[in-house]
Specification:
single chain; alpha/beta; Transposase Inhibitor Protein From Tn5, Chain A, domain 1; 3 domains; five-stranded mixed β-sheet; three-stranded antiparallel β-sheet; globular
Length: 295
């Protein structure tokens, strides 16, 4: 389930909600069409907000029990005012409690809080920060910071997220969900990392990267890894698991993944390494014996 931008011959862009649960791309809803960048951004946000309603997706509470009342304040009738004066006090308190304030970079904090309050493009984010936080930040600085984030803060931010997850789950991380998605770029050329490949977003004409995400039960984050856009997603499972094991030195968890990661080589490796696992598969591709058991 994802949101897709579809260019039209007229030069406008349609924002569509796409479902791939059946193995085929299906347009669930076209939220709107526009050629105005601001309207496109609004439609993009609207589509993301609609997905949980359309598909009945659950959500998880990442905050500590003592913060629940604070976050609840965002849902009252004064949300508009909170957006002007409240993110630093409300979400900032949660930010500090989780421990993300260990990353001593003001721009990092501004970008995290603005992403929670107003998830828009990088350019629109600088406009939001100017309007509601009184900050003048050039968009080029945001782009440069993303390189710094990956280079200097990636491991530290993941460690913070993991430690908070471990605390929430009372040191019991026995199940890990692993999934892979693609992120495309609005450019026409490849480089050493952004490569043409199988696009889950229906954009094979754009170079992309692969993003592998590890989460625990109830959806609490553990870590992520990125790969070249032309890499076969099945080849990412074992390296990510082994890196996770080395980093946190935990007993082997139960691995849950979908059919895209189901290969004989991966199954053999998981078996040999002593992992327990649950891997999704399509009934039509299974043996007759298994088909009969599910009929």
């Amino acid at each position: 389930m994802f949101v897709r931008k579809t260019p039209n011959r007229s030069g406008s862009v349609s924002i569509q909600i796409i479902d791939k649960s059946s193995g085929k791309y299906r347009v669930v809803e076209t939220v709107g069409t526009s050629s105005n960048p601001s309207e496109i951004e609004f439609l993009w946000r609207t589509a993301h907000h609609k997905i949980p309603t359309l598909f009945g997706q659950g959500s998880f509470d990442f905050v500590h029990e003592t913060d629940r009342a604070i976050v609840h304040a965002l849902n009252n009738d004064h949300t508009a005012k909170v957006r002007v004066i409240g993110p630093e006090k409300i979400l900032g308190a949660v930010f500090n409690r989780i421990g993300v304030n260990k990353i001593k970079d003001e721009l990092f904090k501004h970008l995290v809080l603005s992403r929670l309050v107003c998830p828009v493009s990088k350019l629109a984010t600088t406009d939001y920060l100017h309007r509601y936080a009184g900050l003048t930040i050039d968009v080029s600085k945001v782009y440069r910071f993303l390189d710094k984030l990956h280079r200097d803060y990636k491991e530290k931010s993941q460690r913070i997220a993991y430690e908070h997850t471990r605390k929430i789950l009372k040191n019991k991380i026995g199940i890990i969900f692993y999934d892979m998605t693609t992120l495309y770029f609005e450019v026409e050329y490849e480089d050493n990392f952004r490569k043409m490949g199988f696009s889950k977003e229906g954009r094979p004409q754009n170079p992309q990267i692969l993003l592998g995400l590890l989460v625990s039960e109830k959806g609490y984050p553990i870590g992520y890894e990125i790969f070249e856009g032309n890499k076969y997603e099945g080849d990412t499972l074992i390296p990510v698991l082994e890196k996770f094991q080395r980093k946190y030195r935990l007993p082997k968890p139960i691995i849950i993944a979908d059919s895209g990661l189901l290969s004989k080589a991966n199954l053999q490796h998981l078996f040999e390494k002593g992992y327990e696992y649950i891997l999704g598969a399509r009934i039509k591709n299974e043996t007759e014996e298994i088909k009969k058991k599910n009929s």
